[in-house]
Design a protein that fits this description.
Its cofactor is heme c. Pfam families: Cytochrom_c3_2. With 113 residues, this protein is mainly alpha-helical. It has a domain of 79 residues: Orthogonal Bundle (Flavocytochrome C3, Chain A, domain 2), CATH 1.10.1130. The radius of gyration is 18 Å and the shape is globular. About 5% of the residues have low confidence. It binds heme C (4 copies). The site of one heme C (HEC) has 22 residues, from helix 4, helix 5 and helix 6.
Length: 113
């Protein structure tokens, strides 16, 4: 077998493994770490149209200041800027691809987890 083909298969294997280990959406990654639906939603069985308050996120993540401290290496800081107070879920979607809100006005090519 050609070396390049073996390498391609190995890489494909890695890609599949890391995908399985790291679910695509934020809520799934939290559930995989043991978080309950209730920890974000406040209820055991969230209904369609359910939203999550930033307070629920802060219960585990501390405060906006603490989160901003974690991302201070990024300039500008996504958690400390003129949009302070924006709901977490405006950027961090629970069950869908997250949104690069800052990039909608600025040339900031950010990947939002
Ligand atoms: C990390 C926090 C988090 C966890 C854990 C979480 N969710 Fe959500 N969920 C959200 C957010 C944020 C929204 C708002 C919509 C969005 O951003 O996708 C939402 C929305 C929803 C909605 C409304 C979706 C719609 O389009 O109407 C349902 C239903 C839901 N979640 C069910 C669940 C269930 C069931 C679980 C547990 C298996 C769960 N969620 C766990 C954050 C979470
Ligand atoms: C039950 C506790 C809990 C709640 C509630 C919670 N988180 Fe988390 N979150 C964690 C833990 C634990 C981690 C992994 C360790 C870390 O990075 O802090 C994490 C990691 C993250 C990460 C980085 C890693 C990843 O999977 O992307 C983001 C972004 C995040 N949380 C955002 C949120 C947002 C936004 C909300 C509210 C919608 C929320 N979290 C609610 C516990 C929680
Ligand atoms: C304007 C969009 C935006 C809002 C609003 C926002 N975030 Fe973030 N968040 C980001 C971006 C962008 C990153 C990725 C930073 C990076 O790449 O280092 C991030 C990363 C994170 C991380 C992971 C930090 C790490 O160590 O890698 C956590 C946890 C987090 N956010 C929690 C929150 C919580 C909780 C809220 C609400 C209080 C919130 N975020 C509001 C854009 C946002
Ligand atoms: C709705 C459009 C819009 C969004 C979304 C937006 N900005 Fe801005 N931002 C502006 C405007 C308008 C200015 C002022 C431009 C100027 O005077 O040059 C600005 C100015 C700034 C500046 C210059 C310094 C300051 O504070 O005035 C920074 C840094 C900045 N934005 C970062 C961000 C970040 C980070 C995000 C995401 C959290 C974001 N912006 C989201 C429109 C936006």
């Amino acid at each position: 077998m050609k070396k390049s083909l073996v390498l391609a298969m190995v890489l494909a294997g890695f890609a599949a493994t890391s995908f399985a280990a790291e679910p695509a959406f934020l809520a799934d990654r939290h559930v995989a770490r043991g978080a309950s639906c209730e920890s974000c939603h406040g209820v055991k069985a969230p209904a369609p149209g359910a939203k999550v308050s930033s307070t629920a996120c802060m219960n585990c993540h501390g405060s906006l200041d603490k989160v901003a401290e974690r991302t201070k290496a990024k300039v500008p800081n996504p958690h400390y800027n003129h949009l302070i107070g924006t709901d977490c879920q405006e950027c961090h979607k629970g069950h869908a691809q997250s949104v690069n809100l800052c990039g909608s006005c600025h040339n900031l090519d950010w990947k939002v987890p």
